[in-house]
Amino acid sequence: MHPAKSVIFFTTASGAGYGLGFWLILLSLTGLAPQTPLLGWAGFSLAFVLVTAGLLASTFHLGHPERAWRALSQWRTSWLSREGVAAVATYIPVGLYGAGWVFGADLSQPFWQTVGGLGAALCVITVFCTAMIYASLKPVHAWRSAVTPAAYLALAWATGAVVLTVLVRLDAGLADMRAAVDTIALFGIALSTVIKRVHWFRVTKTHGTGSAESATGLGDLGKVTLLEAPHTEANYLLKEMGFSIARQHAAALWRAAFIAGVILPFALIAVAGAMPSSLGLVLTALAALSAAIGVVVERWLFFAQAKHSVTLYYGADRA
Amino acid sequence: MAVTRQDPDGRGQVQVDTAPIVSDEVKTTTCYMCACRCGVKVHLKDGAVRYIEGNPDHPVNQGVLCAKGSAGVMQQNSPAKLRKPLLRTGERGAGQFKEIEWGEALALAADWLTEIRGRDPSKLAFFTGRDQSQSFTGWWAAQFGTPNFAAHGGFCSVNMAAAGLYTIGGSFWEFGEPDWDHTRYFMMFGVAEDHDSNPIKMGLGRMKTKGQAKFVSVNPVKTGYSAIADEWIGLRPGTDGLFVMALIHELLRAEKVDWDFLVRYTNAHWLVVDAPGDPDHGLFARNALGDPLCWDVRNGEGALRSALIPETKPRLVGAATLEDGRRAIPAFELMARRYLDPRYAPDAVAETIGIEARTIKRLAAELAEAAFESDLELDIEWTDWAGRKHDSFIGRPVSMHAMRGISAHSNGFHTCRAIHLLQMLLGSIDAPGGFRSKPPFPRPCPPGPKPAGQTVKPNTPIAGMPLGFPQGPEDLLVDEAGAPKRVDKAYSWDFPIAAHGLMHMVIHNAWSADPYPVDLLFLYMANMSWNSSMNAAGVMHYLTDKHPDGSYKIPKIIYSDAYHSEMVPYADLVLPDTTYLERWDCISLLDRPICSAHGPADAIRQPVLTPDRDVRPFQDVLLDLGARIGLPGLTRDDGSPKFPGGYSDYIVNHQRGPGVGPLAGWRGVDGDSHGKGTVNPDQLDRYIENGCFWSDSFTPAQSYYKHGNREYLDYAHKMGFIPAADQIVMQIYSEHLQKFRLAAQGHGDRQPPDHLRQRIESYFDPLPIWYTPFEEEAVDEESFPLHAVTQRPMHMYHSWGSQNAWLRQITARNRLFIHPSVAEELGVIEDDWVWIVSHHGRVKAQVKPMAGVNPHTTWTWNAIGKRKGAWGLAPDAPEATKGFLLNHVISELLPPKSDGQRYSNSDPVTGQAAWYDLRVRLEKCAEDGPGETEPTFDMLPPLAEAPKPAGFDAERSLLRYGESLTGAPSGRSAAEHREWIGNRHEYAQGDAGVQDGQGNRLREEDAS
Amino acid sequence: MTALPARELATKLGLVIDLDICVGCHACAVNCKEWNAGGHSAPLTDSDPYGADPSGVWFNRIHTFEVETEAGDSRTVHFPKSCLHCDDAPCVTVCPTGASYKRVEDGIVLVNADTCIGCKLCSWACPYGAREYDEDAGVMKKCTLCIDKIYNETLPVESRVPACVSTCPAGARSFGDLGDPNSDVSKIVAARGGYDLMPEQGCKPVNKYLPPRPRKHDPDGEGLSPVEADQAGLLARWVDRLFTR
Ligand SMILES: Nc1nc2c(c(=O)[nH]1)N[C@H]1C(S)=C(S)[C@@H](COP(=O)(O)OP(=O)(O)OC[C@H]3O[C@@H](n4cnc5c(=O)[nH]c(N)nc54)[C@H](O)[C@@H]3O)O[C@H]1N2
Ligand SMILES: Nc1nc2c(c(=O)[nH]1)N[C@H]1C(S)=C(S)[C@@H](COP(=O)(O)OP(=O)(O)OC[C@H]3O[C@@H](n4cnc5c(=O)[nH]c(N)nc54)[C@H](O)[C@@H]3O)O[C@H]1N2
Ligand code: SF4
Ligand code: SF4
Ligand code: SF4
Ligand code: SF4
Ligand code: SF4
Ligand SMILES: [Mo]
Predict the structure, then answer these.
(1) Which of A1, A250, B831, B988 could serve as B996's disulfide partner, Cβ 3.0–4.6 Å?
(2) Is B444 helix (H, G, I), strand (E, B) or coil?
(3) CB within 8 A of B130, min separation 6: which ones?
(4) Residue range B669-689: average pLDDT?
């Protein structure tokens, strides 16, 4: 599948934003996060910026961004629509909770606890919906699996938490929660690594049940190969769904994603935990930067390595 | 994920306008996107073409339309359309022109022409491409007085035309067709597309749906038609003749021949003088009246009698003694002796052709079974040529069709004759289920007239039409010394039966002044500096080469094209033509007709659009020029133009002979006579009312055995198809060929020059022969181990499809298809670049391995490669960077013989260009990376102020054709949907239970 | 209208394509382009039409495959493909706007160009590659089954069928109601063993493909038996034969 920049940016940025929002609320609800205005301002604004920039970016690849609102209408059937609805809905409780936080409401009140719980849940649901857009696509074997939502959720967890490791180093008053946040981030990274490993296996070692034979229905006659494509130059289908990347190239990028997205952030955060806050800030900031690069590469690969069944009509024998 | 469903009534579903008003007006005309000439209905909206569809009533296409025809919209919308007459300003070939007015252009051309005509008319070489007005352009040339006229047939399919016309009085090409509805066995030789484009597809579809025939495709490549064949015979190119002779060998040995057919309809029983050394050796023994003789054993005792009379019982084997005591042998025996020879046994030929002997044997058995064991008999009463009544037509349901895979070889004439011989032995010519001639064929073998141009005098027409059919050395156009009188050497000892001329040699010969130079080369719709020439680079050189004094070797060149082709820059004066939708045309029975085996037909084109440029129909221009230079047939006595109304005036008012004009329909003052009749001033209106065509149907009794069918022969004579209503006797043994051979052996007063004696003697064999194609013979197998051929893409017409925004999206580049074993040996994979190297040069291409190709054969799509700057395409278009032209490695000359002589790369009998004799080797290109084809040539300057295609947004390079053509609602509600069953009628005959009819019309509707 | 019709549709219009006689001529693809360029989804924009990278919106495309048996026998099959108007059309259910819908009347799957946001998701959801994005218009387009032709009373009867169908020179395309087991198209599908593409995708396509028929080809067939051993024998045999003209 063609890795569109806007979609890569959207899914990674909003994933991190929802992850961040989720952890802020969860840590607050569990009393692990002190209600400091700085954390509230920095955390919620960053989450909003990430999510909003992502959502805006996602409209860039639309043919008619001005009609984007229409995408909210088909939530009964369409995961994309559900995602839109969930994304919009998430703003309300998360925004409210953030406001409560920074304006000093008593967040332990049941009302705020409900709002927070709803907000955290919607963060999860939105990321889940995003993932389901892909996971529901039967023609794309690489995506059509529980691994896809698991990976999206784990990566949102990890990236949100990594961002939070930076934020909790902005203020001495947050020192107490650093260990918890670091642990969450490290866990998230580890979990994502395991899930992506499964994804890697799925992408490289398995394929859909479809074949050039089933696509053409000519399997009874023998082995099917493409002699001539309908057009000698690339058409929309090939440009959009026929994107392919060489095996070695992909393996190199996986390594890059692993180093930038896993090894470096993991090591940096682990080390940062033992460092004084100023150095820790630098280290976690580097971790976040590295994770961002890693997850963008990961997301690029998520698309680039996914094969669409239409390629079976264009020379692929498996997809 | 569960599927979610919507409200059962579809409430809230958007309403679609199911009945928009499609067009303001629908006009019928005839397609010109290829030479098939289908009937079309053109939907016009706001003066633009909204939709072109097949005319369901038209006899050629019955409503279907091919990809090219459907893309006519984009041909009309081409950015490569010429706008105005052009006069060369820079060096020839550089493409620098200034636009001039028509008055100036015509005056200039008329000056040039007048001067030449007054001096030596043969110094005008007027050659036209796939001209659909040849009877007019040829007549114009004759009026001018030059013998140097021909159309494209010489590089196209003259082998098929000549072999057929000298053998069975008809031919493959588009002059005959299989009896699709009755055939049980169809063998197709070397056809990728053919001129009969849609009818072949329709026929194959019907035949296969009906399911009673086996379809065998003989072709080194398995695509297109071959892909749907039941059996593919992927033989080695150029070996079909041997293959067919092996089939004949098998049939003869098993006595599977149609004796009755042979004695009734062929010259099998005619006696051939057997007196080696005598001047009439090998000619037919004749009586005083000139009738051929046979040995008639009717009364027990044998006697010599005219072979033409019906009441004989002629012997087919056994020598007879002539009155003068010499021996004579029936033609059949000569033929049988030849092909019974063990060298034609399947085992002897299998290796050469690359097909197993047992396959050949089996195919012979299958042919015999299909021909002779079928119970096909049509219960139709008919009368034979001798007036005898028959209750039925006996079927011989084996049909054959062959085209350029046979034609484009230097042994193609004989190979085609061999196929016709096979058909005759099976009795399957014009028999039910066999190959059927389309009117005006069959004609006598060969048909009259002979080529004109023996004498050429200033300001004088030549004595007939330039192209014709020589019957012996006396008809050749050669001077005392035996030198050619025509610049292309047609009808000379080089190519005695060059019935279509040799367009592919004209430029070479004019340049080399061999046999003589010309003053003016006048070309019409042939892309001679590119895809229609062999050795394109050489041709560009010939067109631009100069004498030491700086003058061009070809002094003047006029060219008419409608588009900015590669040929345009080589003209001094360019006469821009209209498109086919903007002019009158005439598809005449005097020309290449559009008839079917069911009856004659002809057609017109009417202008359905008005040109938006300063262009004129070429036929109008030719009439105008003819009048300006005072050609007799084109001017009245007072010197005024005879057809002031242009081509439509000519179409209606010109008469070739009494009552014979370009169009056969609605002749006579009242428009009620067809075929012959006086001029009808309203004729074109009648055509338009009828959908721009006229057609007639044979009665069932006229429909078969037309060469020997009294009712048909009378009809054909009445219609003017044949000079007399006599039986047409097919020629197994060709005396005409023997006449040339005798001359070569030293007989008669017209003999070939010594250097050609051997050649004439070898190749003018009266019975079909097979020999290794010339190029294969001339180069060594090790250096050039592979054959290279081209195929026509069904959706592209030669070079002119690439300017078409839709068609070029299908094929914008071509690759060289090779067998996987070749790929492996070479170490290349898909899309690697290779050099294709021939004895003549090399061209660079990308490869594509495929299984369905003869392992010794490579091939590519024809004419996709383009020169940078031509056809309104961007210089970096794939056509110019990746697409390649195989013509760069095909030479018009064969490698030198031991004596240094270089013969033309053509069939020695007909002069047919031998495109498919090409032998190559492949060399892997060193570099990898994207690569670009070579050779490339200087980029041509684009047209000044090229027309802007409608809907084209040049800035963003987007074409939104149709945006402004959507229809307004008619307010009508949705009609019932109508089923359409492809080949419904054939399905209805099977057991699927489908109702009878055609397409979406059921039988009852047809009736009502 | 993103939901699929709630009940099994009574009428399911669709195409039947006969791979046994398709010669790969591209007529159906070009005629489709021609009709639809000015039709319901007009225009079918072409980009770089005269340049280096020409591509455009086509509702129907012709592929060519080679099919090889293990014994090395190959067969070339031309394979036209357009929207299959699936019963369970995933392109419809994924659409976030309702622009994509399946008509209740006849099962035709269409896109409403006025509400499509051009998210391309439907083209990802279609396993067959039957959706065509018009970059310039910013909306998804696709085979309309010639909805503005098949019901159009302003056209003569024989034109009231999809453009690709009436134009096909080989007669390889049929059109009709595949929801009605008694329709003629259904009958030929039954008779010829018409099948679905990619059944594993579960889209239940309405369009059917008729498989190439078994070849009429018996490689073990016998040759002819000579009636005499040699040429001399044959000629001797024929000398005395009587033939009547
Ligand atoms: N390698 C190889 N070469 C071949 C062949 C092959 O099989 N292989 N085939 C050969 C054969 S059989 C043929 S017939 C030739 C064909 O070769 P050409 O006759 O050169 O065919 P086209 O490329 O169609 O070129 C005809 C010219 O006519 C122009 N034209 C089109 N419409 C009109 C019109 O309405 N009016 C005028 N005045 N001009 C028009 C086009 O713009 C073009 O320049 O190619 C030959 N060359
Ligand atoms: N779409 C389209 N239609 C056209 C044209 C076009 O350009 N495009 N051109 C028109 C013209 S001018 C012509 S002349 C006709 C020609 O129409 P065709 O006769 O169909 O011409 P080609 O495409 O040259 O096909 C020649 C076939 O012969 C095969 N072949 C080559 N060598 C041999 C051999 O030695 N033996 C056998 N058995 N087969 C062999 C090739 O593989 C190829 O399939 O088409 C006309 N119709
Ligand atoms: S075969 Fe095609 S291009 Fe040729 S005349 Fe017919 S419709 Fe036109
Ligand atoms: S028009 Fe008919 S024969 Fe031609 S490609 Fe389409 S389906 Fe095949
Ligand atoms: S073929 Fe594709 S576009 Fe057509 S209905 Fe089925 S899923 Fe939708
Ligand atoms: S591109 Fe248009 S039709 Fe397709 S899913 Fe998006 S909104 Fe729906
Ligand atoms: S039904 Fe109409 S829109 Fe669909 S492929 Fe055929 S011609 Fe094109
Ligand atoms: Mo030709």
Answers:
(1) B988
(2) coil
(3) B35, B151, B152, B156, B525, B526, B798
(4) 96
Please name which of B424, B275, B406, B290 lies closest in space to residue B738, comparing C-alpha atoms.
B275
Q: Is C95 in the pocket of ligand 6 (CB under 6 A)?
A: yes
How much is the average pLDDT of C89-112? 96
Residue B875's φ and ψ, nearest 5 degrees, are -60, -25
CB contact under 8 A, C170 and B201: yes
Residue B997, classed as helix, strand or coil, is strand
* Burial group, residue C181, by CB count within 10 angstroms (0-12, 13-18, 19+): exposed
Question: Does C29 sit within 8 Å of B45, measured CB to CB?
Answer: no
Given a cut of 90, whether residue B4 has pLDDT beyond it is: no
- pLDDT (tens digit per residue) in B152-203: 988 999 999 999 999 999 999 889 999 999 999 999 999 999 999 999 999 9
Helix, coil or strand: residue B722: coil
Burial of C120 (0-12, 13-18, 19+ CB in 10 A): buried
Per-residue DSSP letter, B968: P
Which two three-digit tokens encode residue A75? 């939530």
Rounded CA-CA distance B649/A64 in Å is 57
Q: Which residue out of A228, A231, A235, A237 would a mutagenesis test of the B interface target, given it has the greatest number of B Cβ atoms within 10 Å?
A: A228
Helix pair A175-205, A147-167: axis angle to 10 deg: 150
Q: Which residues of A touch B852 (CB under 8 A)?
A: 227
The 10 Å CB-count burial string (b at 16+, else e) for B663-688 is bbbbbeeebebbbbbeebeebbeebe
> Hey, which CATH number is domain C13-243, 3.30.70.20, 3.40.50.2300, 3.10.150.10, 3.30.365.10?
3.30.70.20
Q: Classify strands C46-47 and B958-959 as parallel, antiparallel or unpaired.
A: antiparallel
For chain A, the domains span: 5-314
Nearest Cα to B979, choosing from C186, C22, C105?
C186
Q: Which two tokens stand for residue B626?
A: 């003819």
Looking at chain A, the whole-number percentage of residues with pLDDT higher than 70 is: 100
What ligand is nearest to the CA atom of residue B565?
1
pLDDT > 70? residue A48: yes
Banded pLDDT at B945 (limits 50, 70, 90): confident
pLDDT tens readout for residues B718-738: 999 999 999 999 999 999 999
Residue among A264, A263, A281 nearest A272 (CA): A281
Which pLDDT belongs to residue B8?
A: 59
pLDDT at residue number A74: 95
Tell me if B1 and A136 make a contact (CB, 8 A cut-off). yes
Residue of C nearest to B1002 (CA): C158
- Reduced to 3 states (helix: H, G, I; strand: E, B; else coil), residue B685 is helix
CA B405 to ligand 8 centroid distance, Å: 12
Smallest Cβ–Cβ distance between C63 and the set A67, A210, A229 belongs to A229
* ipTM for the assembly: 0.97
Is C47 in the A-facing interface, judged by CB distances under 8 Å? no
Cβ contacts of C209-212, under 8 Å, gap ≥ 24? C209/A217, C209/C16, C209/C17, C209/C19, C210/C16, C210/C17, C210/C18, C210/C19, C210/C20, C211/A217, C211/A218, C211/A220, C211/C19, C211/C20, C212/A218, C212/A221, C212/B228, C212/C19, C212/C20, C212/C75, C212/C77
Q: What is the pLDDT of residues B803-828, one digit of tens each?
A: 999 999 999 999 999 999 999 999 99
Ligand 5 centre to CA of C90 (Å) is 7
Q: Give the residue on C whose Cα is nearest the Cα of A78.
A: C94
Top mutation candidate among C19, C26, C59 for ligand 4, by most atoms within 8 Å of CB = C26
Residues with Cβ within 5 Å of ion ligand 8?
Answer: B 156
| Residues whose beta carbon lies within 6 Å of some atom of ligand 7 | C 32, 35-36, 59-60, 82, 143-146, 162-164
The domain at A5-314 falls in which architecture? Up-down Bundle (1.20)
